[in-house]
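Lecture 7, part 2: worked example. A protein chain together with S-adenosyl-L-homocysteine.
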Amino acid sequence: MSTEPTLWNTVDHYFTDLLTPADAALTTALQDSEAAGLPAIAVAPNQGKLLHLLAQLQGAHRILEIGTLGGYSTIWLARALPTDGHLITLEYKPEHAEVARANLARAGLDKITEVRTGPALTSLAALHDENPAPFDLVFIDADKANNANYLEWSLRLTRPGSLIIIDNVVRGGAVTDATSDDPSVRGTRAALDLIATHPKLDGTAVQTVGTKGYDGFALARVLD
Ligand code: SAH
Ligand code: DHB
Ligand code: MG
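Predicted complex, written out as structure tokens:
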């Protein structure tokens, strides 16, 4: 096992340098996030590009993100939107939201993005009360304990054909432990159970390796 992470990093850097070349807005977003003391847990560049491509394939006009951090994944997602598109991203910590707003403005995306501060469960209830047009894509990437709750809210805020993506579903492998008392594992397992059993969801989960280590994501399509 010991040499594998090095190999994952080498291959990830090869893919990233070749296919997602450096970009001023994205690079500065990460630099300013680090300078502001935010944890370095944004999606990797090639994962961000995957989110971007999925949003484009979705023909997304409206995107919802739960868990903003410094807005790195937000930039990748929002860049897939048409000029009349809209992205709402939910962030608990005001200091993260502030960094994200500056990063989105620098990327020229402030007109089509909105960072809402507060606990996402509260923001989601408020958003639902606004009776918004359905979101075409939801990216769930906040506190993992609430993954199933976020998925339930996502079902109320989407349409048949919408795509829901959940980040970080591997939990170092602990996701297989049905007896775990880790809230992140329990929340993630509950979300995966919903994908497996909910009549309006069809999905899968995929393990990943790379510069972020060993992890994975779940994808679910909303059905009629
Ligand atoms: N999507 C980002 C990474 C998000 S990290 C990217 O890839 O670039 C997870 C974020 O979720 C953190 O900023 C954290 O503050 C936020 N968060 C944690 N609990 C939350 C909650 N209950 N409601 C909203 N945001 C929350
Ligand atoms: C953590 C959160 C994330 O969203 C991620 O992609 C990696 C790590 C964390 O809370 O440690
Ligand atoms: Mg994540």
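Helices lie at 4-19, 24-35, 45-57, 72-78, 94-106, 120-129, 147-156, 183-197. The first helix runs from residue 4 to 19. Keep this in mind for problem set question 3.
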